[in-house]
Amino acid sequence: MKTDRSHALFTRASELLPGGVNSPVRAFKSVGGEPFFVQRAGGPYLHDVDGNRYIDYVGSWGPMIAGHAHPKVLAAVERTMRDGLSFGVPNALEVTMAEAITSIVPSCEMVRMVNSGTEATLSAIRVARGATGRNRIVKFEGCYHGHGDSFLVKAGSGALTLGLPNSPGVPSALADLTLTIPYNDFDAATELFEKAGSDIAGLIIEPIVGNANCILPRDGYLQHLRDLCTKHGALLIFDEVMTGFRVALGGAQQRYGITPDLSTFGKIIGGGMPVGAYGGRRDLMSQVAPAGPIYQAGTLSGNPVAMAAGLATLELIREPGFHDALERSTHALCDGLESAARDAGVTFHTVRAPGMFGLYFREGPIETFEDAKGSDSARFNRFFHAMLERGVYLAPSAFEAGFVSSAHGEAEIAATVEAARAAFAEVAT
Ligand code: PMP
Fold it and tell me: What UniProt keywords apply to this chain's record, in alphabetical order (predicted)?
């Protein structure tokens, strides 16, 4: 596969950008080699600057649930941008977006738009602390909630991939306020709340973990956390930056029937533009400035073009049957991969939720972060490159979930499974 142009760009980039990239996992550090540079994207495909085409299972890390460059999303952006790119004054699209989010996610009685998932989670814990008058927060080992100081404690995603779960630059005075427990461990949560419950402002969780590969909640686990938070007066925060609008229209909270106090979103609601949001109970969100004293602001928040892209995407995914089809495609892909691995004699397991999946080079079931870490990442790295060679782009890390979009049709899934047959055979020994 020709990669001369990407190589030349990466050489230039490496002089000027840390690691040659603007976000760590893009650099292929853990899988080895160099990233390709994208020229354009359409539907399920990325096209690189050397003319190679890849079936894309990263989808810009989640936003492109309707496929790349969807004509309806592009049309909304084009229409909106003609009226100006940013006003710093309220715009009707912000109201439409707030109506869309609150009607799709009933636990969100009010929302505030921000510009990234990181901003959303930072703001949500500020509300939790401000509203409860407590300082401690609880997170889970291997979960990632953006790069805010309080979250870079036993963090997932790139921090995990690169072996930097506790970042330098985070004052210990702040990190010490973040308590971590293992995901899916009922007793650890109970014990922590029994010990420290009256100091805990909130517990933040990826209801389905997508930043330590992919792990589903055990039966009753999310309800257990809901009950503990209620009992101890702490707020339950669902970080649905990844799962929101994906695993069900109303996110993981709809899929599992749990009502969090606060939720955070990103990715899909921006349709590919930089967007995040946090929302929740009216009595909590009413404490955010200028309605209340908890300060949070943003020059570009509620940007009209970003709202237009997000609203067009929400319109697409509100079509009846959208998530059922996404779930069927995810199963078809994962079943196909498992059968290809079996035929090649490779120990392999998948974890699935509608539109997202985890690939494991080990036996299942996968229920804990320890289980996830037990995957053979050296073999994953070889598989990643064997797939890339054959025109399939998986997340360049053994610790990231993959994403399926509505643009991945039967043909792309069949081509992916075909590529996987050869790739599994290559990594079998
Ligand atoms: N929370 C979760 C669950 C995420 O997956 C991510 C990003 N992958 C974030 C927060 C941070 O979002 P952003 O990268 O937009 O800041």
Answer: Cytoplasm, Isomerase, Porphyrin biosynthesis, Pyridoxal phosphate
Q: What lines the ligand 1 site, CB under 6 Å?
A: 61, 116-118, 121, 144-146, 157, 206, 210-211, 239, 241-242, 266, 276
Atom number of ligand 1 nearest to Cα 116 = 15
Determine contact, residues 276/68, Cβ cutoff 8 Å.
no
CATH architecture of 4-69+320-427: Alpha-Beta Complex (3.90)
223-268 pLDDT, tens digit per residue, is: 999 999 999 999 999 999 999 999 999 999 999 999 999 999 999 9
> Active-site residues: which are they?
144, 239, 267
State the distance from the centre of ligand 1 to the C-alpha of 312, rounded, in angstroms: 21
Reported as a single tens digit per residue, the pLDDT across 35-83 is 999 999 999 999 999 999 999 999 999 999 999 999 999 999 999 999 9
Q: ipTM of the predicted structure?
A: 0.99
The structure's pTM equals 0.98
Annotated domain spans of the chain: 4-69+320-427, 71-317
Cα(266) to ligand 1 centroid in Å equals 7
Place of tokens 């199963």: 331
Nearest CA to ligand 1 atom 5: 242
Instruction: Please tell me the CATH code under which domain 71-317 is placed.
Output: 3.40.640.10
Dihedral, 383, 389, 391, 396 alpha carbons, nearest 10? 50
Helix (H, G, I), strand (E, B) or coil at 137: strand
